Each structure stands twice: as C-alpha cells, then as structure tokens.
Amino acid sequence: MSFFENTRKPAGFSGKIMVAMMNFGHSAMAAWGLHFLQPAPDAMVLDCGCGGGANIKTLLKLCPKGKVQGIDYSAVSVEKARKVNAGAIAAGQCTVQQASVAELPFEAEQFDVVTAFETVYFWPELAQNFREVYRVLKPGGTFFICNEANGETAKDDKWTRIINGMTIYTDADLKVYLEQAGFDRVQSHKNKKGWLCVTAQK
Could you tell me the pTM of the whole model? Predict the structure, then answer.
C-alpha cells in the first residue's frame, strides 16, 4: 500500500502520520468552507469521516452549547480524534466512534448539521450514503460537503491515479446525487485554489 492510500483509510504507523498531516494540512480549506455554514450555538452536529478530529474541535467552538459527534471507519483516525477532543468527550459534548457512513449508528432525525470534509471521494455508494445522511438529519437540517478538489482541473487526475477507490466529483455531480437522495436548496461555492463547498437542505 502506498503512503497516499492512507488518505482513504489510515492504518498503522504511516496512517498515524497521515492523520496528523491531514489535521494540519486541511485546516485552511476547512476554515474557508465553514464561512458558508453558520450552525446555531446549540446545534447537534455529526462529522462523517472525521479523520484526526481537527474539524470536530472547530465545530465544538462554533456550537458551544451543542454536541458534536464524529464517525470514521479507520481505527487510527478514531484514536487520534478522541485524543484531540479528549476534554470535550470528558465533558459530554463530544463522542467519536468507528463506523461507516453506509450504515450510520444513529436514530433518524438526530442532527441539525452533518459535515463531510475531504471524505466523499471515498464513499462507496454515494447515492445510498447521501440517503443515510438524509435519514439522520432533522427536517430543515444542513448537509455540508467541503473538498479540496472540484473535479475541474487536470491536477485532480493525479490523485485518482495514486489513490485506489478515489473519485473526485464536480459540484454538478454532487448536486445530482444530493437531489436523488431527497435534498434541495443545493448551493455550491468555489475559490481560485479549486476548493469546493456544497451545502444542501433536508
């Protein structure tokens, strides 16, 4: 397995390095994307594919009276995310568990916001996975996707060649899948770096 395969499902020592790198390397993109998401201070938030937990930490600051839960299917990511957010977990404001977006371990209509940073590239069945996100969102809730690649530049092809199972979607692609899952009011934002943020409402 190449080092970059660890972006998909971090494992072992190199996975720990990758998770630490992602926490740092994606921070600017996440900060940019979060300008387009304004959760209520008491929002219930789920971060799907939470990686090393840096975005959970940011979301906890945005929702100081709410609760942020994280899931990731990598045990290495879950371990790191729990360490990064140990204080909030101890305070009962946060939980992180190993799980897949294909079968979210939550009752229907639990969350005001579901976020997905740099992760939908690796979701195996996008339409079904989006329906699962739709299920756990409350009516009126927001699904927020933030990607470093928007599928419109030649450099994106490099990553799909290096990383097995990676698919880079354009905003138009994502809109189709989101609407198939039942979402509406789909909005997308892009910047000069090729970053993409998409929000959709239940």
Answer: 0.88
